[in-house]
Known about the structure:
The complex is a heterodimer.
Chain A: H1 2-12, H2 14-33, H3 38-47, H4 51-62, H5 67-78, H6 81-88, H7 97-104, H8 109-121, H9 126-151, H10 165-177, H11 181-200, H12 206-227
Chain B: H1 2-24, H2 33-56, E1 57-58, E2 61-62, H3 69-84, H4 87-108
Antiparallel strand pairs in B: 1-2
Amino acid sequence: xxxxxxxxxxxxxxxxxxxxxxxxxxxxxxxxxxxxxxxxxxxxxxxxxxxxxxxxxxxxxxxxxxxxxxxxxxxxxxxxxxxxxxxxxxxxxxxxxxxxxxxxxxxxxxxxxxxxxxxxxxxxxxxxxxxxxxxxxxxxxxxxxxxxxxxxxxxxxxxxxxxxxxxxxxxxxxxxxxxxxxxxxxxxxxxxxxxxxxxxxxxxxxxxxxxxxxxxxxxxxxxxxxxx
Amino acid sequence: xxxxxxxxxxxxxxxxxxxxxxxxxxxxxxxxxxxxxxxxxxxxxxxxxxxxxxxxxxxxxxxxxxxxxxxxxxxxxxxxxxxxxxxxxxxxxxxxxxxxxxxxxxxxx
Lengths: 228, 109
């Protein structure tokens, strides 16, 4: 029975891994062309395991940003996992804390979506996650290493438009987030401010400042609308 | 390149904490609704900022122009993303658009 659930988790990982393949591959190629070695790329995929943040880190590294900028930007970009983790929590109340701490590390946009979808239709079983989550991570890590290795053979990734993979991914993730007027407002404000701050203030803090101001403005508007 | 590993470790830590805390700790605590609202808007805000930056920030600075290929390619990407809600399709259309636009650049501009 248990083994059956793990296997079910593994087969549910297949569509996720198919999505990770081109993305991870593009990341590997780009990270390699930015000067990262295969062990470094492997370490990043294994330890950070967050596609968008990894792409951003590469772009920031290339623009000469420092440790603090990269880490704080990563934090903000990945803060969304807080919500995923919080929505899985009610399903996993009986699972021991140590196990939760391990499972939590493998929450991504996609693995979360599959897990939540499964739990709302079937009984919430921890075992399912032990099949799903590690399979997704294996798929991601391997595809980035594959891309890094292929990077040796692709001297000019721009020729294949691979440098656009990040932009296209941002666009798609952004569209996922646009659900009501307030989220449109937050996204638009964030975008305009990111460019304005870049032009008018020195340093590489534009993304961080724009995000915090835009989200705060959105909350302000929401509260104000409620009170009127 | 030791600095890279330091950056990787820093990124790993700040990525792990938001993934882990709600499951392990916050399970027992309820966040204030205003904080929850703020957290709900963070993804839209940060992705809006990042998308605008990758589209409009070119090597020469902030570029609002029809000649900006990243901007032109973003249009089909947005359409496909809204329509299909699929990461794979959006990326595929983005890559193809950029390659095509680069091919036809001398003809177009």
